[in-house]
Design brief:
Blueprint: H1 2-10, H2 14-26, E1 30-35, H3 41-55, E2 63-68, H4 71-86, E3 97-100, E4 103-109, E5 124-130, H5 137-146, E6 153-158, H6 166-170, E7 186-191, H7 206-215, H8 220-225, H9 243-246, E8 247-248, E9 258-264, E10 271-279, E11 282-291, H10 296-310, E12 315-317, H11 322-328, E13 331-332, H12 337-349, E14 353-356, H13 360-367, H14 387-400
Parallel strand pairs: 1-6, 1-7, 2-4, 2-5, 5-6, 8-14, 9-12, 11-14, 12-13
Antiparallel strand pairs: 3-4, 9-10, 10-11
Helix pairs in contact: 12-14
Length: 415
């Protein structure tokens, strides 16, 4: 046993060892590992602490819970790594479960208000929660209620979010709380990116960490992704925008290698099409069509005009009106709000996104009035002055996602 424990410790960074030993000493009922991306918290939580806990009940035929935002995200973030690192067969059966150490591991997505219903009626001896801040609180409450088997333990891990988030206010802020018996109830452990450097025994090179820092927008994004801090967004959404640096002359159309568009539907409030082009690894906002009280047939005519003039075949549309998307022959956009805003912010900050002088008036009219909601648990911008902002976000995040570099597409490879 001592050799096995030493073997585990040899795999860990300095911070991971500190947390492992503290949990071993105090044995908290709820352990929460939170902090920056790639800081080693998930590896410690799922591949060390979680497996160690289940192994204590080897051969009992009892139930344990694993959750993620969705089951596919749980597979990508956790299950595939367990399979790759230890050869554990994590293929899910018809009940979204698999066997481990002679016990049953039941997996759940927790992304909506009704997800909790799938957990009802079971007794669990432990719960591993991946990306716990993305879980609907109905599922969090149900998961806590299901963990009633003698000796149960709960392990959550997450990146930081809004400091008013329920997980922060109601659990992390209670770190160190004990039961009336003196037993440690909740213990939270903070991680930052440097905790996973190779020199500390972890897995990231200094070159990678430096690159991540340079590629992360300053402000809230850096505070969260690099420093692992729970900080709020406030003020203007795109506060990085500097008009003199991020505006360009309208380019000749023969210099554009690819065109694509974002579409936000409207009637009483404006509908919008934003046309983008790629020129020498820069994305340029070339045109904005913003109109009220226009029906779908009018917008289809505009789409055909743009298509004929610019050979634009990619129209990333608001999926809230599927009948419009179908008639438009468009593409359902990825409407992830925070992720999409972060992507557009990053592209502006790094000079990957420029605004043509022809669009700057309409663009800035919205941009300077597009603000974060000041209060509330859920982090979101105010739904005002967002028509152009949404159309831009739909196009940029759906097309480029988390990629860091805009690739020039030559005329020979144009769709």
């Amino acid at each position: 046993m001592a050799k096995a424990r030493d073997s585990v410790l040899d795999k860990l960074s300095i911070r991971q060892k500190e947390v492992f030993l503290d949990i071993e000493e105090h044995d908290p009922i709820v352990s929460i590992l939170h902090g920056s991306v790639r800081s080693g918290k998930t590896f410690l939580a799922d591949q060390i602490l979680w497996l160690k806990h289940i192994a204590k009940f080897r051969g009992r035929g009892i139930n344990f819970i694993m959750t993620g935002f969705t089951i596919p995200s749980l597979r990508k973030n956790v299950l595939d790594d367990l399979e790759a690192s230890y050869g554990i067969d994590t293929k899910l059966d018809a009940n979204n479960s698999f066997e481990l150490f002679g016990n049953r591991i039941l997996c759940f997505g927790t992304n909506n208000a009704n997800s909790y219903k799938a957990m009802r009626g079971m007794t669990a001896y432990g719960w591993y929660g991946n990306e716990i801040t993305l879980s609907h609180m109905n599922s969090v409450n149900e998961g806590l209620a299901r963990c009633s088997g003698d000796g149960f333990r709960i392990f959550w891990e997450t990146n930081p979010d809004n400091p008013n988030h329920n997980v922060k206010l109601n659990y992390i802020n209670r770190s160190g709380e004990r039961l009336s018996s003196g037993k440690m109830h909740i213990k939270a452990y903070h991680f930052q990116i440097e905790h996973n450097l190779i020199k500390n025994g972890g897995g990231l090179s200094e070159e990678y960490v430096e690159s991540l820092k340079k590629n992360t927008p300053e402000g809230v994004a850096t505070d969260r992704a690099v420093k692992g801090l729970w900080v709020a967004r406030e003020g203007i959404v795109y506060d990085c925008f500097i008009e003199s640096q991020m505006t360009c002359e309208h380019p000749p159309m023969n210099e554009i290698s690819e065109f694509f568009s974002g579409v936000d539907w409207g009637f009483k409030h404006p509908g919008v099409i934003c046309l983008f082009g790629i020129r020498k690894e820069k994305v340029i906002l070339l045109d904005i069509i913003k109109e009220t009280e226009k029906d779908i047939d009018w917008w289809v005519t505009e789409k055909k005009r743009i298509q004929a003039k610019h050979l634009c075949t990619q129209f990333y549309c608001d999926s809230a009106r599927p009948e419009y998307v179908l008639k438009f022959n468009g593409i359902n956009a990825d409407k992830s709000v925070i992720e999409g805003i972060d992507k557009m912010y990053s592209m502006l900050k790094k000079g990957e996104l420029l605004i043509s002088e022809r669009c700057i008036k309409l663009f800035t009219e919205e941009l300077y009035q597009y603000r974060w909601r000041e209060t509330g648990v859920k982090e979101e911008p105010i739904k005002l002055w967002d028509d152009i902002m949404d159309a831009c976000r739909y196009a940029l995040y759906t097309k480029f996602g988390k990629t860091e570099v805009i690739k020039e597409i030559t005329a020979d490879t144009r769709i």
